[in-house]
Amino acid sequence: MSESLNTTPETVGGPAARSPEHVPEQVAVRAPEHGHRAAPATVGVSPETTAGSSPEAPAGDSPETTAGPGAAVPRPVADDESRAAAAERQRRLRGEPRFPGGPAADPAGSHYERRIRSFQPRRSRVTTGQQDALLRLWPQWGLDIDGQRVLDLRELFDGLPVVMEIGFGMGEATARMAAADPGTGILAVDVHTPGQGNLLGLADRSRLTNVRVANGDAIILLREMLPPDALDGLRVYFPDPWPKKRHHKRRLIQPEFLDLVAERLKPGAVIHCATDWEPYAEQMLEVLTAHPRFENTSADGGYAPRPAFRPLTRFEGQGLDKGHVVHDLLFARV
């Protein structure tokens, strides 16, 4: 098990109050199934529609006639939605978890400076199954990125080599990679609550023991919670491309981010990026090639073919159907 993810509540005991992703340039996370896109807001039903009247209603079919004299007029759905939205805003302001005992709303709180982030948290509906997984499995497999402790990855993953994945979407590809390589631990970082619950559920049903889900800012995780040479690899699949020029500063793959990553990867460990956004692929290649602590594993110095271990995701398939070209980049830490 995108975007994910980030710490261990008493080493994996339970989450604390926490926040989205990265600090120098936020990590993470974006498109569905390795990438996130905001969903449109639900439109409330108007009082007229709720009451049953419409411009086409025949004369005499008024609400009074249809509903009956003295019938109570239903409260507009929009009012209920507004109240729910207001309650959700207040919950987030108070830093309360969406699910008691589950991932925290703002794990890092005010401990760290606000900065430009490379991800945009989405508040999406959590299904019953995802909620059940969060409530049951978060204390065992979930981590809050609070920046207040240093993780012992050997203890967290029972001595397995650990690869970190930033932004895992709904977690399908992450679960498949974990199942195909049970000898490697995956520290999956994301801030998308439905995706976190979905990945936990997938891991549970597949009896996977090599996945941990980290909630919060991946930059804080890398910078504050991991010791040098802690990781055996880093995966960044389909991060938000931030296509508008004024938003390019939000892109995750930047020189400053690579400086931090180089300190946390073991010598020889590989950073593996993938994107279907051509301009972003070009920037990734340029920035990685220019960095003195990374070396392209592709003999021609360009993009690499998709490795067999990276599954074709649903999101990626949709892009290919539209004619998008997906580029993989694999650079080893020197």
Describe this structure in words.
The protein has helices spanning 47-51, 63-67, 77-93, 128-141, 153-156, 172-180, 193-205, 218-224, 255-264, 278-290, 314-321, and strands at residues 142-144, 162-166, 185-190, 211-215, 231-237, 265-275, 294-296, 327-333. The protein has 11 helices and 8 strands. By secondary structure, the chain is an alpha/beta fold. The chain is globular. An 8-stranded mixed sheet has the order 1-4-3-2-5-6-8-7, sandwiched between helices. Helix content is 31%, strand content 14%. Helix 9 links the parallel strand 5 and strand 6.
Strand order of the largest sheet: 1-4-3-2-5-6-8-7
Report the strand count.
Answer: 8
Mean pLDDT: 79
Query: From the alpha-carbon coordinates, what is the Rg to the nearest angstrom?
Result: 22 Å
Q: Which percent bin holds the helix content?
A: 25-40%
Task: Briefly note the structural class of the backbone.
Answer: alpha/beta
Listing every helix as H and every strand as E from the N terminus to the C terminus, the arrangement reads HHHHEHEHEHEHEHEHEHE
How would you sum up the global shape?
globular
Count of DSSP helices?
Answer: 11
Can you summarize the main beta sheet? 8 strands, mixed
Per DSSP, what share of the residues sits in E-state strands of 2 or more residues?
Answer: 5-15%
